[in-house]
Amino acid sequence: xxxxxxxxxxxxxxxxxxxxxxxxxxxxxxxxxxxxxxxxxxxxxxxxxxxxxxxxxxxxxxxxxxxxxxxxxxxxxxxxxxxxxxxxxxxxxxxxxxxxxxxxxxxxxxxxxxxxxxxxxxxxxxxxxxxxxxxxxxxxxxxxxxxxxxxxxxxxxxxxxxxxxxxxxxxxxxxxxxxxxxxxxxxxxxxxxxxxxxxxxxxxxxxxxxxxxxxxxxxxxxxxxxxxxxxxxxxxxxxxxxxxxxxxxxxxxxxxxxxxxxxxxxxxxxxxxxxxxxxxxxxxxxxxxxxxxxxxxxxxxxxxxxxxxxxxxxxxxxxxxx
Amino acid sequence: xxxxxxxxxxxxxxxxxxxxxxxxxxxxxxxxxxxxxxxxxxxxxxxxxxxxxxxxxxxxxxxxxxxxxxxxxxxxxxxxxxxxxxxxxxxxxxxxxxxxxxxxxxxxxxxxxxxxxxxxxxxxxxxxxxxxxxxxxxxxxxxxxxxxxxxxxxxxxxxxxxxxxxxxxxxxxxxxxxxxxxxxxxxxxxxxxxxxxxxxxxxxxxxxxxxxxxxxxxxxxxxxxxxxxxxxxxxxxxxxxxxxxxxxxxxxxxxxxxxxxxxxxxxxxxxxxxxxxxxxxxxxxxxxxxxxxxxxxxxxxxxxxxxxxxxxxxx
Lengths: 322, 315
What we know:
heterodimer; A: alpha/beta; six-stranded parallel sheet; B: alpha/beta; seven-stranded parallel sheet; 12 strands; about 35% helix
């Protein structure tokens, strides 16, 4: 066991799924303090076993706030499994001199693939048509209704960060015309920039929500924006449910004020508005944009790289700059 | 021109645009509206000067021979496998199709099918609707970006599929009648080799005698238990019973199909499989594209009867 004691210690309160999928990659390099396996209540476990722990690897369900940090006096690094690290009180960490890392780009490609998949599905009615065929209706009832051509559509990306950029690149391959709204313009990109999301909607056939959920973006996609998008417009959301005023979205869909929606996220997961269940012009997805083995592998690699950098006093790979 | 008899065997589309436009210009004989089809063809055989066909209904030698005054077959499709082209050439009958206008839509569906299969979009949509999400998260699915896409047939549609897949950083490989060295994609001289070296295999070639059952057991086994087959060509490109047994036995990772051997019949054994996506021959199925296809059909017929050059002749 001498080798185990030589490995740097990393505390995990609840194992994030990428850790579980690639556990041996972690245990080869680190001595994992498994709080979730202990029968002790958490605070007792921490005061007994985690007083000298410098690194915490955490799930999105582990809120990293003052209450937790009080119990970890030696903590210097929080490694979050997620891109947003919204479960981490970054101000509190900064105050205590604790660095925070996130997943960086690890999931961007898979999330972008999901956004494009939902976009194609809504426009070409793939899921609804597949269900139609499986119920034997193609032979008994005849051809399925026509969809809407994707090539040439004006797509408005809301939030042109890593994910938004990956989505834009992909849709250009389909001949879509890309424009965007973002916190700030990205002058190195040639896509037209709109400083407000309503204007973006008015000039787009579809909106793809790729931004983070913040106080500014909560319910940003509201009645005004959906109205501007119009009755031939489509919304795809792979950001967070609360970026869209869900009640308003449902109303617009029910009244035919927008054409359709592809949603991977909702305001009150895993519950969805019951009106959506019977609609053919929406595609519903259970918050699974990052759920591929490949993205878990990338996520694990980023987390390990940050831990290794920390323990060898090198610059962190994906520090959260706020 | 409304004295010209134009024969149609089946309605072409869920949108009536083509029929409306044909009705405005010609006397359209609609086979699906009459009870005794054989008699109807006999009764009208000498007046029919044009046929409007589509992907599923063309004109075989027998039909062509029974219409002595047939001058042109205008197909509402890019595929002309259901038309006896040799016979048409012999008898001087013109044939037109609808290339280019549907290239984008069909290529879009190919990528849409690949994403839907690999990321289980249809299956997880039903997972949410049926309330299963409340019981637990969905499982992991397979990444599409970066996977090798193999294309059979690098014509207009094949090239459009490649362009889209490249935007997902997918390496592109292909099999074609002839190598195309001007393209920087990897060429394989046989379909089996292509299948062995790709993750997603897309059928995008025309259906001919040579390409019938181009996807056979050997190719399916080479594609393998992690491979995904996407068929946006014709049902007869694939040995359908072999495909079904490979999927049921887990020898093939998954499939996205838009076409089948005997449309609209789809093998029922596929209905319960979650690694499949089944579309009702909807490759060109958008209002915009079907209207553009209809305009080409009408344009070709008008050109012919006005003795002008055909817009998109095949023969």
